[in-house]
């Protein structure tokens, strides 16, 4: 398959933003948290409040961008490809590195005392059920796999759907992205109750909406480059402002907070995050180059392995920049993210030179 140049830029950008998110989480996790924020959050001062909101809030488009890239490339399936051929290709590509890193996260941290033997055995015994204790970032793999499982189901509809029909689906999806706010302000709506979580628009919710949005942009959107850039920029700014503000207004320093409460606007399927993601992706589609720089292409190819391993490197750079050098938050977060990104790139590049490296870091 010929490389789509702007998608290489999106992958690299999204991969870096993932590391910004997790670097930021070290500045609002409550005592007892690991390298990522836990169920409770605590901000020590106003500087942490501001810069966590800015850096982390803006970077919350990372996961949806990855979803859109996958959908842009894979949906609908190629003509003549069977469901089982599609599943086989996806499984071979993502599952071996995924399981290898789940084993590594369940065992290697014992070497530096981050987990004990009991935790390691528990994590290993639950590999088929969920991600390890210290690998919270691997949650992303499960909705991604779910999207892959659904692509053969929705492909026939995507192949025939008109622009108007897809806009109707996207409109219902956008309504579902308002649900977290409706539930907070209005309580249970559209059939929700303690014995039924499947509200009226449940089947239009979640990452499937990003899949249809990606297909709509690729197939039906006819805006020229200037219009995409202008509208994309406005959407990105508005989405970023709302996402940043949603955290900042709630995250009062010196108080213990419930993380899902103050992160309500940081959920990936909220209206503000969709606006932020869609706007940014539209701007990336304006990149019109026959070929990306070699470094960008290499990073894009290695981005899966970089994502899988980055938590191993993150803790080291948190120690360096937050504790040893004690940099102010405004500088520490980007320094941690950049150093983690660079370390992961170098490591995956070295691993890629080994025979059979695709089974470890993907290809």
From TrEMBL:
Superkingdom of origin organism: Bacteria
Q: What is its subcellular localisation?
A: Cell membrane
Which parts of the sequence belong to the Acyltransferase domain?
5-348
Residues folding into a coiled coil are: none
UniProt keyword terms in alphabetical order: Cell membrane, Membrane, Transmembrane, Transmembrane helix
InterPro entries assigned to the protein according to its UniProt record, in alphabetical order: Acyl_transf_3_dom
Q: Which Pfam families match?
A: Acyl_transf_3
* Main subcellular localisation: membrane
Q: How does it sit in the membrane?
A: Multi-pass membrane protein
- Transmembrane segment boundaries: 12-30, 50-74, 94-115, 135-155, 167-185, 200-217, 229-252, 264-284, 304-321, 327-348
Q: Does the keyword Transmembrane apply?
A: yes
> Is Lyase found in the keyword set?
no
Family named by the database record: Belongs to the acyltransferase 3 family.
List the protein's name: Surface polysaccharide O-acyltransferase-like enzyme
The source organism is Parabacteroides faecis
